[in-house]
Design brief:
The longest helix has 12 residues. The strands form two sheets. This protein has a seven-stranded mixed beta sheet with strand order 5-6-4-3-7-8-9, sandwiched between helices. The protein is α/β, with parallel strands linked by helices. The protein has one domain: Rossmann fold, CATH 3.40.50. The chain starts with 7 loop residues before the first strand and ends with a strand. Helices cover about 25% and strands about 35% of the residues. The protein is built from five helices and nine strands, in the order ββααβαββββαβαβ.
């Protein structure tokens, strides 16, 4: 079982006032990595797993393979070609432009995996793109939730699973 003690912490990274929770110790230990992936499994049936750039890419393929499902990616703008949906995400220390290839999303039940739920800005932007792509439903799994930043409140319309709460 993953706990807060499994993360390394770095104060004032990437900007002053932010406490960064590093997942490297979890990735370095095969048992902890498996526990993390097991904790990210969906709370209800899904048809496709979506990994969010960048650390969601680490966990999403393992979960997708375990479920014998395909995977899609949400990337930062400029990192993927083709006809893409776009959304702006405001996060706790900046902003990000995200993109999604909408092919294969319409009518699907989607599990979105990311490492941290903080303000919910990224998750709201991802949900918006998936809904515009025609997803039948969207649910989220996060390795960590920073409760003081109240991101879960912005996701009140979605099922949200979190492995570790801070």
């Amino acid at each position: 079982m993953i706990t807060l003690d499994d993360f390394a912490t770095f104060p004032d990274f990437p900007v002053p006032g932010v406490l960064f929770y590093d997942i490297s110790p979890i990735l370095a230990d095969p048992a902890r990595f498996r526990d993390a992936c097991d904790g990210l499994m969906p709370v209800s049936p899904v048809d496709v797993v979506v990994g969010v750039d960048a650390r969601g890419f680490i966990f999403a393929p393992v979960v997708a393979q375990s479920l014998e499902l395909g995977m899609a990616m949400v990337r930062k703008k400029g990192k993927m070609p083709g006809e893409l949906l776009e959304a702006d995400a405001t996060i706790e220390y900046g902003a990000s432009e995200l993109v999604l290839d909408p092919n294969g999303i319409a009518g699907k039940r989607v599990l979105v995996i990311d490492d941290v739920l903080a303000t919910g800005g990224t998750a709201v932007a991802v949900a918006d793109m998936l809904e515009r792509a025609g997803a039948a439903s969207v649910q989220f799994s996060f390795l960590m939730e920073i409760e003081a930043l109240m991101g879960r409140e912005r996701l009140a319309d979605y099922a949200v699973n979190t492995v570790v709460h801070v």
